[in-house]
Design brief:
It contains 23 helices and 20 strands. By secondary structure, it is an alpha+beta fold. It is globular, with a radius of gyration of 31 Å.
């Protein structure tokens, strides 16, 4: 009875004198839950204000679930909402975050407005209204999945929903945000699945941050905008970069503009999960704080701060939208990712998180072994020394924090370095493997035994990274797009400052923009990398004896598979350079054919195959993939569009390839499969050219209608012959000559 009475008294005091219970900051809403629902009292001062509605996973019943959901994860972007009401209902509006029209006084604005009304997404009956507030029942709104916000917003599900298990577990109200914990249950496909989702409703700043216009020459995440200009008239893309609001305090503006370092008005604080091992925790803290060096160069000190959960204050909740967290995820999925939530009106980052999976160290260790163990003894041990582990964790942490700050990947960065420089100790110790930690240039596979290279990682923070922070975060007393563009213009002739994000294609449009590549000479880099793999494979049985105690060959099959994949990855990174330039094209083709026709033989080492199995099938499969990419449409078009009569032409490409592939020698099983894959790929390309607007290749590959039919007949016969006899090269070569008009010299 006393508890009930106290609760009633608390509710009465809350309604009458909210500051007595909540301190100086009154809660954004007042909540009352009973058997009829969850009733929310909304102050009228918040009507027509902007909010952000977001959701994340708090708990899951299985770390290896079907939909790969983990505690702390968010799958959807938050949505921008606004509230309005009439006498009967409260409405939830979904403003348009992409289309802009700033000149509301223009005589044409009414025409725009008629085509841009704000839609209503939901409505609720007003249960009670006073002079200062309205009350609505938000039970369903808060407890049910919300399309486009919740991880289970009708698109992704681990099984059939069990609505009877869905319920609100907890509601917390703060000055500027509402936090609701909701339980969802599912029947599951193989086992029941239970999860808790945290829904957050955040009051957005009344005055949005001044946006900074995205320039594609510097890699920032950005939100797309379409700006209507009546005077032109036109519709122009004007994307906003995503960034934290880092500005001097009003009292420090003058000092900042005079070139003095000042503290930001609001620092960026990341809270590190206490579940991390102590060694990891220290390394993560360093990775977070590494970014302070970049901010110091633009006049801000102590921007990045790192605290553990234990060091946080009493209001801290890792699932509260107000806090940036570096989270520990227990799973066998080797991954790490940095994400952020932004104000869609301006691009301001409001909250950021890193999900760091427990098995990510296994992935880092694998790369470290495959790329450096030929010359770096520390990489050969089963258990990495603490100092190496700390370096790997620090590097991965700093990379993900870069994403949290708004930076995109920069896969072009590594191309800025001369390949030979990566073999020089003095160069690598100063510059690492790439100008940007946002690249995927993880470890130095170019350096060779005897070079003396000791530092094998990317830089803790590269030249490009510090430059990118200046572009995104340097404070301007008045936002000036021309000023920022001028800074970028100054660096455009220096490859150290170039940026490129790989397009979603098997063959990148720009071959200099690739993951895991190193240096500006793709053939030399691949050659050095393969030499190191050869060295590793030679020593692998002996190293494994040292790495493992119980069964020295327990890991041999997995290690061998990884090494095999690394070899063919080197080849695949060279393919996009065919058609890049005459000189590079020739070197690339020569390198690829030599590797395809015998370079792989080191993978068939008897001492390794004894424990890892016969690699023949895997090699043939990988070679087929290489051939399909070498002679697919993308490379064919690239060569044809760049060729000159005196340079590297498509006809020359086919001729050179035929000369490598079809010889008087009796082919082995690998060569026979290469021939078959080659002819099949070319025939597929020819078929595609005839049935599409692929005109560039119709000239190179085609003939008249009668000839096309003849070609098809010969092709069928030729492939059948190769498949049966596997010995006579004359028919396969004759087919090649007939179809493509290429002579074998």
């Amino acid at each position: 009875m006393m508890r009930i009475a106290n609760n009633k008294l608390r509710l009465l005091l809350l309604l009458l004198f909210p500051t007595l219970l909540w301190g100086n900051s009154a809660p954004m809403f007042h909540i009352r839950q009973n058997a009829k629902g969850c009733f929310v009292e909304i102050p009228k001062r918040l009507i027509n204000r902007d909010f952000l509605l977001a959701a994340r996973v708090m708990t899951v019943s299985s770390p290896n679930n079907k939909v790969k959901l983990y505690a702390g994860q968010r799958l959807y972007d938050p949505v921008w909402i606004r509230l309005k009401y009439d006498k009967e209902q409260l409405y939830l509006l979904r403003p348009d975050s992409k289309n802009l029209c700033e000149d509301t006084t223009h005589l044409s604005y009414p025409a725009y407005a008629r085509n841009a009304i704000t839609p209503i997404a939901e409505s609720w009956k007003i249960e009670q209204e006073t002079d200062s507030s309205i009350v609505v029942n938000w039970s369903k709104f808060l407890s049910e999945p919300i399309e486009g916000v919740d991880p289970f917003g009708g698109k992704t599900s681990p099984g059939r929903s069990l609505p009877q298990l869905n319920k609100i577990l907890q509601v917390d109200v703060h000055e500027k945000n509402l936090e609701v914990s909701v339980q969802y249950g599912f029947e599951g496909t193989t086992q029941p699945f239970l999860t808790t989702i945290r829904k957050s409703l955040l009051l957005l700043p009344e005055q949005p941050m001044q946006p900074r216009i995205h320039d594609a020459r510097v890699g920032y995440d950005n939100i797309p905008k379409r700006k209507f200009n009546f005077d032109t008239p036109s519709i122009a893309a004007e994307n906003y970069i995503t960034r934290f609001r880092i500005v001097p305090s009003p009292k420090d503006v003058r000092s900042y503009l005079q070139g003095k370092q000042v503290k930001p008005q609001q620092p960026i604080v990341f809270y590190i999960d206490d579940a991390f091992p102590p060694l990891w925790k220290k390394a993560i803290r360093k990775g977070i704080l590494d970014w302070n060096k970049a901010f110091e160069e633009i006049g801000f000190k102590e921007v990045m701060q790192a605290k553990t959960y234990a060091e946080a204050g009493p209001e801290f909740d890792p699932n509260d939208i107000r806090f940036n967290c570096f989270r520990y995820v227990v799973s066998d999925f080797p991954n790490a990712m940095g994400k952020h939530w932004v104000d869609p009106r301006s691009g301001e980052i409001l909250q950021a998180d890193v999900l760091f999976h427990s098995n990510v160290i296994a992935l880092l260790r694998k790369w470290y072994f495959l790329q450096t163990s030929a010359y770096h003894p520390a990489a050969r041990t089963k258990t990495l020394p603490d100092d190496i582990t700390a370096q790997l964790i620090r590097y991965a942490a700093a990379h993900e924090i870069g994403h949290c700050l708004g930076l995109e990947h920069n896969f072009k960065a590594s191309y800025a370095y001369n390949t030979e420089d990566l073999r020089r100790p003095e160069f690598t110790e100063r510059y690492g493997t790439t100008p940007s930690i946002m690249d995927y240039a993880r470890f130095n596979y170019v350096a060779q035994p005897g070079d003396g290279v000791r530092y094998v990682l990317p830089p803790l923070l590269g030249v490009y990274d510090r430059y990118a922070i200046r572009i995104g975060y340097a404070y301007l007393s008045r936002e000036n797009t021309r000023t920022v563009a001028g800074w970028i213009d100054e660096k455009q002739n220096d490859p150290m400052y170039h940026c490129g994000r790989m397009a979603p294609s098997t063959i990148p449009t720009d071959p200099t923009v690739q993951t895991s590549d190193l240096g500006n000479d793709p053939v030399a880099s691949a050659t050095y990398g393969i030499r190191n793999l050869q060295q590793i494979l030679t020593q692998l049985p002996e190293w494994n004896k040292k790495r493992l105690t119980d069964n020295p060959f327990e890991e041999m099959p997995a290690t061998y598979t990884d090494l095999q994949q690394a070899y063919f990855d080197h080849l695949e990174r060279v393919i996009p350079f065919i058609g890049f330039s005459d000189e590079v094209s020739g070197k690339a083709v020569e390198f690829l054919w030599k590797e395809l026709l015998g370079g792989y033989n080191f993978l068939r080492t008897d001492a390794v195959c004894k424990y890892a199995g016969n690699p023949t099938e895997a090699i043939i499969k990988a070679q087929k993939t290489i051939i399909e990419k070498m002679f697919g449409r993308i490379i064919a078009e690239r060569i044809s569009s760049n060729e000159t009569s005196a340079g590297f032409t498509y006809a020359h490409y086919l001729e050179v390839s035929a000369n490598y592939l079809f010889t008087d020698k009796t082919p082995d099983i690998f060569t026979r499969h290469l021939q078959e894959s080659y002819l099949q790929t070319l025939q597929s390309l020819l078929t595609e050219a005839r049935t599409s607007s692929f005109s560039v290749l119709e000239t190179e590959l085609g003939g008249d209608e009668q000839g096309q039919d003849r070609h098809h007949d010969v092709e069928t016969e030729s492939l059948a012959h190769i498949g049966q006899s596997r010995g006579d090269q004359s028919l396969g070569l004759s087919f090649h000559k007939l179809i493509f008009g290429v002579s074998n010299k």
